[in-house]
Each structure stands twice: as C-alpha cells, then as structure tokens.
Amino acid sequence: MDEVECVVVGAGVVGLGIARALALAGREVLVLERNGAIGEETSSRNSEVIHAGIYYDTGSLKARLCVAGREALYDFCRSHGVPHARLGKVIVATTQTQLATLAKIKQQAEINGVHDLRVLNPAEVTALEPALTATGGLFSPSTGIVDSHALMLALQGEAEALGALTVLRTPVLRGEIQAGGFLLETGGEAPLRLKTRLLVNAAGHGAWDLARGLLGYPAQLVPPRVLARGVYFVLSGASPFRHLVYPVPEGGGLGVHVTLDLAGHARFGPDVEWIDSLDYHLDPARAALFYPAIRNYWPDLPDGALLPGYTGIRPRLSRLGQGAADFRIDRPAEHGIKGLVQLFGIESPGLTSTLALADYVAAALADA
C-alpha cells in the first residue's frame, strides 16, 4: 500500500492552489484528478473575471478571501507571467430607482474593504463606454480578467517544482477515516489503495460524492448540492466595450453581464438554469432571453449578433431566493476530524480567491 503525507482531491484552480500552498509549507503532496486534464470543469467554464469583492455579505469568507485573493492573484500573475489585464468594470444603472441600489452597492463594497469605487453620472458612463445607455454607474478599477488555464499551469508548475505530484484519470472512489489518517481507493487505469495523513477534498462538483463516500464521516455534515447551469453567448464582430459591464443586480443574481477575453472579444452571461445532473448542453434558443436583457443597457445590440459560446455549472449551496450561500470550508475546527478539510460550494469568486483560500486551508492543517 502506498503512503503519502497529503492528498488533495481535485486539480481545478482551487485544488492546484492548495497543493502549491501545502508544498510551500514543506508538505509532501499528491493531487488526484478524475479527468484527463487539469481544470476541465468549473475552472475552465467561467467568466475568467478577477473580482474586486464588491457584493458579498459582510464578514463572509467570500468577501474576505476575494479581497485578499484579488491582490495576491494580481501579484502572482505579474511574477509568474500569467496573462491578465486590470480592465476595470462599469456597474450600470438604467432606471432612477436603481441609483439607490448603486449607493448600497458602494456602501457594501467599502464594508468589504473595497475603497476604490467611483460614482459615475450619465455623462461619465458614456465617456467610459459610449455604447451604454445609463442613468448612472459605478466604476471598479480593481476588476480584471485572467487566463485561467495559464494560471492553473503556473500553480501546477510551482507546486510540482516543490515536489508535488499531479495524477490524472484517477478518480477517488471511496475512503475511510482511520487512526492517524485516511485510506483512499482510486479507480482509473491503475487502481490503488493509498494511505494519507492529510486529506483535502477540493473536488468541485465531485466534493459531495467524495464526502458521502468517506466512511466514518457524519452524513449530516454533508450539505445539499445545487447545480446552476449558465450559458455564455459571444458577440460576433468587434466589441464596442473596453471594460467589463455589469447591470445593477436584481432578483438575487448579477444579471447578464459583459466580459472580455484577453483578445478583446465580448461575451455575455451567464444566465441561471437549475439542473439535476452535470449536463453542459447549450440551447441556442436561450439567446432570446439575452437580447432584451442586454438592450436595457446596450440598446444598439444588433439582431443575430449573439453566437452560442459555452456553458458552465456552478456548484452551489442555495438557489436564488434562498439567500446567498457562503463558501463552505469545513476544517477540523468544524467537524472534529484531524487532518481533513472539505470544500463545498466553491463558486464565484473562487477563481479570484484561489491564493487566499489556499492559505486558509493550509493554515487549517498547519498543526496536523
């Protein structure tokens, strides 16, 4: 039977960030990934936005880790040559009643430690983005974009330079809590039984199955899983925008927003569709819902300009209308099992929070 000090399950951006943090702390780390490449699920099917930390509930992990992780991520990208751009974001109001919401957004951002938002009048919105129609806005200079795959490769490369090992096509089928550690059984082409002293469940969509399959872990501590599929449509032709554009949030979501890739191409999304299983099907007919939403702030969107892009699925802990769920990071302090950290519901701003989140997990295992 093989033995290793620490196993991280999941080679998405969060798992790779945690592996790097543990390796930096001198741990022997093995990353197990069920897919044939790193970051094939949530980490590669998102907006690739570096969030400022504006909207999240006061004192939440999302707020704290996003704000800390944002600057850490910019520093990491600069020092490791990861393509990124601090483009800035315009939050745009299109009615008079939304101006009061903008004031509340700015207030919440300041509570969260985001102090650089600038209030915009209609003329200032137009000066930044001439294609927009607005009654007012906020400008967030700290919001940006990142090449998520290049980021994951950099995290993996540094972790492996420190001795970590990533093994692909190796799903963890089940596990058992034992004295002094954990016994894991894996599938794939070379099944194995593996003993580890420290276990980090960063399996994304698979985190719930792994937790339920860990013998000795109380079933009541595994939260419900909610899957939210979002569609992205890309704009045919040149983008009229130089910044990210978000409507004022309404109805519990952030609305259909504009993000840009590093080549300057615009994409719109995601919307929200509640599903029961992992299904990345993209229905082109959903574009009919996008046109009126986008034309609230960009009335000149041409008919037929939206082309199907891709879908992503958020691993969520709540539906819209049930309140915003925080990241769920269950450490030994929460569940009482030494050497174990379980991560659930690591959706947005998980990408932005990666480095701060990784430090948070490594600190939870510092004395294990």
Number of domains: 2
The assigned CATH architecture of the largest domain is: 3-Layer(bba) Sandwich
Percent in helix: 25-40%
The CATH topology label of the largest domain is FAD/NAD(P)-binding domain
Question: Mean pLDDT, rounded to whole units?
Answer: 95
Low-confidence runs: none
The proportion of residues in beta strands is 25-35%
Describe the structure.
With 368 residues, this protein is α/β, with parallel strands linked by helices. The protein folds into 2 domains: 2-46 and 149-224 and 324-364, FAD/NAD(P)-binding domain, CATH 3.50.50.60; 89-141 and 226-316, 2-Layer Sandwich (D-Amino Acid Oxidase, Chain A, domain 2). The chain is 28% helix and 28% strand. Strands 1, 2, 9, 10, 11, 12, 13, 20 and 21 form a 9-stranded mixed sheet that branches. Strand 1 (2-9), helix 1 and strand 2 (29-32) form a beta-alpha-beta unit. The radius of gyration is 21 Å and the shape is elongated. The mean pLDDT is 95.
